[in-house]
Design a protein that fits this description.
Layout (H helix, E strand, L loop, with lengths): L1 H15 L11 H22 L1 H6 L2 H14 L7 H11 L11 H16 L16 E3 L3 E6 L20 E7 L5 E6 L1 H12 L5 H8 L8 H17 L3 E3 L5
Antiparallel strand pairs: 1-5, 2-3, 3-4
Helix pairs in contact: 2-4, 2-5, 5-6, 7-8, 8-9
Length: 245
């Protein structure tokens, strides 16, 4: 039994690292088939999850990055989403090799994937009523970045942070399409309050929001927030916390 376990460990070590010793009794050409199969599966999962990041790196660098991840990371799940999440969590270890915006771009791309594959159903739109108690759809993610990750492409690769924080909201609509909206500071703060403390009426959130925008009165905030939440309610982004439409 011990010899079999040792053989298994040697087999795993060689699959993860082709420079490791060849397991006893296995021909190099046969071992190469397993090495390529396992590595290509993992690499394809990672490429599918981070297409923009992949497009910005030379082929040799991307191959080396995926090979290092496959060799060093202890993967405990074969599922696509789990492997891509493990890559996201591993990426800071090699951030010095990457563009300055890479970690934030990777998180943004992974959130898109997580929303696209979430098993929750997208809420239907409804007519906003400021007297209703509010919550955010479970298919909403609020993000804040130093770089405009939603704009990054082969033609636009910022080297310095944006002058102001970039507030983004990702959500999945009723047609199961993942979309994003750029928010300003006060609307991002409002939605963060609804996310953190669901089950309040708009007036309560306005009271809580005042310290973030002291130059506006409650009436001014209400005038700004009402059309915004009317739009977000129609999109199913903001939902009634009591579950009734």
């Amino acid at each position: 039994m011990q010899d079999f376990q040792q053989q298994q460990l040697a087999f795993i070590r060689r699959i993860k690292d082709p420079s490791a010793p060849l397991p006893a009794g296995i021909r190099p050409e046969r071992m190469a088939v397993y090495e390529e199969l396992f590595f290509n599966n993992v690499q394809n999962f990672v490429c599918s999850a981070f297409p923009v990041l992949r497009s910005l790196l030379p082929d040799t660098q991307w191959q080396a990055l995926c090979r290092q991840f496959f060799r060093d990371e202890q993967l405990h799940s074969p599922y696509f989403l789990d492997i891509s999440k493990a890559f996201l969590h591993w990426l800071p270890q090699v951030s010095a090799q990457l563009p300055v915006f890479a970690l934030q771009l990777a998180e943004y791309e992974w959130l898109e994937l997580a929303l696209a594959t979430d098993l929750a159903s997208a809420p239907a739109g409804w007519s906003f009523d400021p007297e209703r108690i509010l919550a955010l759809s479970p298919l909403v993610r609020l993000c804040c970045y130093q770089y405009p990750v939603q704009q990054i492409s082969a033609r636009f690769q910022p080297t310095e942070p944006a002058a102001q924080p970039v507030f983004l909201m990702l959500y999945r609509d009723e047609n199961d399409k993942v979309r994003f909206l750029e928010l300003n500071a006060w609307s991002a703060a409002l939605l963060q309050l609804v996310s953190a403390e669901p089950g309040q009426q708009l007036g309560t959130y306005i009271d809580w929001l005042r310290p973030y925008v002291p130059e506006w009165s409650n009436q001014q905030l209400l005038a700004q927030a009402t059309p915004l939440l009317t739009d977000f309610s129609a999109r199913g982004i903001v939902v009634p916390a009591d579950g009734e439409s």
